[in-house]
Write a structure and sequence with these properties.
Blueprint (H helix, E strand, L loop, with lengths): L11 H22 L12 H12 L4 H14 L9 E6 L4 E6 L11 H14 L45 H4 L28 E6 L3 E9 L3 H14 L31 E2 L8 E2 L23
Antiparallel strand pairs: 1-2, 1-4, 3-4, 5-6
């Protein structure tokens, strides 16, 4: 990320003093929120800029994401047992944090950095909370859809075929440099909308207390089934899996058939006798993977 400041002229002492005060204030704010201040290069729309600042501040920061990712990756050994990338986006799809679990950015598949952001964007973009319900339309309790839930629906003949080609990734954001900042508190994607739609496991909506949808988390670096399981554990460790019934609040809806894990991955695909893509009984199934973990062993969501 780029920061630019200029000072010159006869008022140099006064300007310098103001500059030191400004720097001190910025550092204090960054420390108070637990992550580095995020400056921007070419800004987005002004309303996005303001919303990004407040919305990302309400989400876990880089350190919290990195710690949760390390714990979740260690706990989940299904799939290939690879190191992972993780991305958080806010409700507008603006990237708030990017982290990796390995010792450096090359310890996990480099291509998975952008995929993790794409998954976070997708889960956020196609999940809802109760605010969607008004004038007789919408989802009364919200609807959580993981990227794993989209796999079958986007296959040829599926109800959402073509969805994966919508909302393309902003490659200018995805591949901004320097590469040495990838997966750090100053990752160049932070503060920008990544876009993209991904339709296999690894992306989940983030639900704060009160079942408020506040963004999405995306994981990539292993099989898509392992990606889903690790994303699930990261969301749980971040405390942003408030989807269970609580008092007068009904459980957030989902398609898994399990109210304790409403947006869990579904393995209901059977072989297609005509060949090609298998058939999902419920329409939201996902293929199994190498060394597939048990989705029923994942933590239940919180009230």
């Amino acid at each position: 990320m780029l920061n630019a400041m200029e000072s010159s002229g006869a008022s140099k002492p006064r300007t310098a003093a103001k500059l030191y005060l400004t720097i001190g204030a910025v550092l204090l704010v960054a420390a108070a929120w637990g992550f580095s201040a995020k400056a921007k290069a070419t800004p987005q729309l002004s309303d996005d800029q303001g919303q990004q600042s407040s919305a990302c501040a309400a989400l876990p920061g880089f350190a919290a994401l990195r710690n949760a990712l390390a714990s979740a990756t260690a706990a989940e050994t299904s799939g290939l047992n690879n190191q992972m990338w993780a991305t958080l986006v806010d409700r507008d799809g603006v990237v708030c944090a990017v982290a990796f679990s390995g010792v450096n950015r090359g310890a996990q598949w480099p291509g998975s950095r952008a995929i993790s952001a794409q998954k976070a964007n997708t889960a956020n973009a196609f999940s809802l909370d109760a605010s969607s319900s008004s004038n007789g339309s919408g989802q009364l309790a919200g609807l959580a859809l993981s990227t794993a839930n989209l796999y079958s629906a986007v296959q040829p003949g599926g109800s959402l075929y073509g969805l994966q080609h919508s909302n393309p990734v902003d490659t200018g954001v995805a591949y901004k440099g320097p590469s040495s900042s990838y997966g750090t508190a100053s990752d160049p994607m932070v503060g920008y909308k990544i876009g993209g739609v991904n339709v296999f496991g690894g992306g989940l909506g983030l639900y704060a207390r009160g079942h408020h949808l506040v963004g999405g988390v995306g994981l990539s670096g292993d099989t898509s089934c392992a990606d889903h399981n690790i994303a699930w554990r990261v969301r749980n460790l971040l405390g942003l899996d408030h989807l269970a019934a609580s008092g007068s609040l009904p459980a957030v809806g989902g398609v898994s058939g399990d109210s304790t894990r409403p947006d869990n991955i579904i393995f209901d695909i059977t072989a297609n006798p005509n060949g090609g893509t298998g058939n999902s009984k419920g329409g939201f199934g996902h293929p199994t993977c190498i060394n597939t973990g048990d989705p029923a062993a994942l933590p239940v969501v919180q009230p």
